[in-house]
Design a protein that fits this description.
This protein has helices at about 30-45, 45-60, 70-80, 85-90, 185-190, 200-215, 220-230, 240-255, 260-280, 290-305, 310-320, 320-325, 335-345, 350-360, 365-375, 380-390, 400-410, 415-425, 425-435, 445, 455-470, 475-500, and strands at about 95-105, 110-120, 135-145, 145-150, 155-160, 170, 180-185. It is α+β, with helices and mostly antiparallel strands and about 500 residues long.
Length: about 500
C-alpha cells in the first residue's frame, strides 16, 4: 500500500510490457494488490455470488484464452450488478484512495460525510493526476451492532444513520477495502479510547491507517503513539499480530530518523514497549503456542538488539556457541536466525569471524541467508567492507553473493559504503545476477541504497542506473527513490514532533 500511494506505482493491468521490463510486473502490485482487490470484490458481492461467478467463468473459458473482462462479465451476471465498472476503476488506474470521514448530529440523526481523493505520500507530487481520480469504493460502515454496506462513487457522499450517539464509528469496517481512512478529530476521539474493544481486524486497520497517515503528514505523531501505548493491554489473539505490525512501524521510523536526536528517544521507547513483551513470552516456545507468537518472539529479539537492549544482546551472545552450526531441532531452532542476527548487530572480531565461517561453510540457502543477515546486521564499517568482498570472492552461490550489498545497506549508516561497492563491482555483480529481464540486475544499484534517508544518494543512484541500464532500470530506481524521499520527508517534518511526543512516553500495562 505504501508503494501504491507513491509516485512509482502503476496500474494492476498496465498494458503491453516490453520484454526487457517484464520482471517489473512480477511484483506486489500484481500479486498483493491484485489479491486484495479480489477479496474486496468478494466482500462486496458475497461469497456465494463470487463462487457462482467464478464457476461460470472457469466453465465458459475452459481450455481457452481469457481476459479480465470475461471474469467481470461472469461475476456481474451472478451478482446482477455492474461489476466491470467497479473492478476496472481499481485495476486500470494506478494508486489508491484516501477516504476522509466526518460526522455530525442533525435533527436526531447522524450525518456521515465521506470524501475520496487519491492518497499521495510526500515526494509523489509528480504523480498528481491532471483531473481528480475516482474509484467506485465498496465500503462497510459500522457503529456498534449496526452495519451498512454502500458503494462510494462520487468525490463526496453523505450517509444518514439512525440516532446520534458516541459509539465509535468505523469506515472500512472489516478491512476489506484497499484504501486508507482519515477520521476527523471528533471521530478519532471516540475510536482511540475504544481501541481494545474493537474487532481484531479493525484494530489492525486503525493502527495501519494511522501509521500511513503519520507518514503522509496527515496525523500527528502523538495520535499514533496513543494507539501504540495500548498494545500491552490486549489479551486476545490480536496481540501478537498487532505487536508484529508495531515492530514494522518502529523499524521504519528508526531508519527514517537516522541521524536525528529523535532516533535515540525512539529506541528507548521501543525498548520500553518491546522488552516486557519478550520477557512475557520468554525465549523458548511453549506447548501449543500459536505460530504468530513464535514469529513475534524472533522479531522481538532482532528489534530489541537493533535498539541496543543490553539484556537481549547479552542473552544472545551467551547462546552463540550452541547455535553456530547447530541443529534445526530443539527449543532454540525457532529463534536461531534471530539470535544470530542479534549477535551480529554488535559482534566483536571473534564473533564476526565465527559468523563468516558459518556463511562460507553452509551447505544450503536457508543457512547461508541466515548467516548473511546476521553479518549484515552489524554497523562496523571495516567488517561490513570485508563482508561485501565476499560478494565477489567466488566462494558463494550467485543468489547469496548478489544479496550482500542490499543486506549491508539495510543499516542506513552503511548505505554509502554498500552503494559505492555495488557501483565499483557492478559488472561482476551483473554477471552473477542473471538475465536483464528476469534476473536481479535492475535491483543491484537500487538495492544497495537500502533503508537510507539520504535523498541525494538515491538521486545519484537513479542517474547511474539510467546510464548503465537505460529504460530497463527505470522502475526499480524510481521505487527506491520514492521510498528514500518518503523517509527523508518524514524525518524533516516529524523528527521534532516525534521527539517531543516520545519524551516521557510510557506504554500502558
Amino acid at each position: 500500500m505504501e508503494l501504491d500511494a507513491g509516485p512509482a506505482t502503476r496500474a494492476v493491468r498496465p498494458g503491453p510490457v516490453a520484454e526487457a521490463r517484464v520482471a517489473e510486473v512480477f511484483d506486489g502490485i500484481t500479486y498483493l494488490k491484485g489479491a486484495a482487490l479480489l477479496a474486496m470484490l468478494e466482500s462486496w458481492l458475497g461469497e456465494g455470488v463470487m463462487q457462482r461467478g467464478l464457476a461460470a467463468y472457469v466453465a465458459e473459458r475452459r481450455l481457452a484464452p481469457a481476459t479480465a473482462g470475461d471474469l467481470w462479465h461472469h461475476l456481474g451476471q451472478a451478482a446482477g450488478r455492474d461489476v466491470s465498472a467497479v473492478a476496472t476503476s481499481w485495476t486500470d488506474q494506478p494508486g489508491m484512495p484516501l477516504v476522509e470521514a466526518d460526522a455530525s448530529c442533525v435533527d436526531g440523526r447522524t450525518q456521515l460525510r465521506l470524501r475520496q481523493s487519491r492518497l499521495l505520500l510526500p515526494g509523489a507530487s509528480d504523480a498528481t493526476p491532471a483531473s481528480p481520480t475516482l474509484w467506485r469504493i465498496p465500503l462497510r460502515v459500522a457503529r456498534g451492532d449496526e452495519a451498512r454496506a454502500l458503494l462510494l462513487e462520487a468525490a463526496e457522499s453523505r450517509v444518514e444513520l439512525a440516532g446520534c450517539d458516541t459509539r465509535p464509528l468505523l469506515v472500512n469496517a472489516g478491512g476489506a477495502g484497499w484504501l486508507r481512512v482519515s477520521y476527523s478529530p471528533a471521530l478519532l476521539a471516540r475510536l482511540h479510547p475504544a481501541f481494545v474493544q474493537l474487532p481484531t481486524v479493525d484494530r489492525m486497520v486503525l493502527l495501519s491507517d494511522s501509521f500511513a497517515l503519520l507518514q503522509s503528514g496527515r496525523l500527528a505523531p502523538a495520535a499514533y503513539l496513543r494507539l501504540l501505548a495500548q498494545l500491552p493491554t490486549l489479551h486476545d489473539a490480536s496481540r501478537a499480530p498487532l505487536f508484529s505490525l508495531a515492530l514494522q512501524h518502529l523499524d521504519y521510523l528508526d531508519d527514517a530518523l537516522f541521524g536525528s536526536p529523535a532516533q535515540a528517544r525512539l529506541r528507548a521507547a521501543g525498548r520500553a514497549l518491546l522488552g516486557p513483551e519478550l520477557a512475557r513470552l520468554g525465549w523458548s516456545p511453549r506447548v501449543g503456542e500459536d505460530a504468530a507468537v513464535g514469529r513475534l518472539r524472533g522479531e522481538l529479539i532482532e528489534r530489541l538488539a537493533a535498539f541496543d537492549d543490553s539484556a537481549v544482546l547479552a542473552e544472545a551472545q551467551a547462546r552463540l556457541v550452541d547455535l553456530l552450526g547447530g541443529s534445526r531441532r530443539g527449543a532454540q531452532a525457532s529463534i536461531r536466525a534471530s539470535v544470530l542476527k542479534a549477535v551480529g548487530t554488535q559482534a566483536n572480531e571473534a564473533e564476526f569471524r565465527a559468523l563468516l565461517t558459518g556463511l562460507r561453510n553452509s551447505e544450503d540457502d536457508e543457512d547461508r541467508g541466515m548467516y548473511a543477515a546476521a553479518l549484515a546486521a552489524g554497523r562496523h564499517p571495516g567488517r561490513a567492507a570485508r563482508l561485501l568482498e565476499e560478494a565477489v570472492g567466488g566462494r558463494l552461490p550467485s543468489g547469496t553473493a548478489t544479496s550482500l550489498p542490499g543486506l549491508v545497506a539495510g543499516q542506513p549508516e552503511l548505505a554509502e559504503l554498500a552503494y559505492a561497492f555495488s557501483q565499483r563491482h557492478f559488472d561482476a555483480l551483473a554477471r552473477l545476477s542473471g538475465s536483464l529481464a528476469m534476473g536481479q540486475r535492475p535491483w543491484l544499484l537500487p538495492g544497495a541504497v537500502g533503508n537510507s534517508n539520504d535523498a541525494a544518494l538515491a538521486e545519484r543512484m537513479v542517474a547511474e542506473q539510467r546510464r548503465r541500464l537505460g529504460d530497463a532500470g527505470v522502475a526499480a530506481a524510481a521505487r527506491v527513490l520514492a521510498q528514500v524521499r518518503l523517509r527523508a520527508a518524514l524525518r524533516e517534518r516529524e523528527a521534532g514532533a516525534l521527539a517531543a511526543a516520545l519524551e516521557g512516553w510510557i506504554p500502558l500495562r
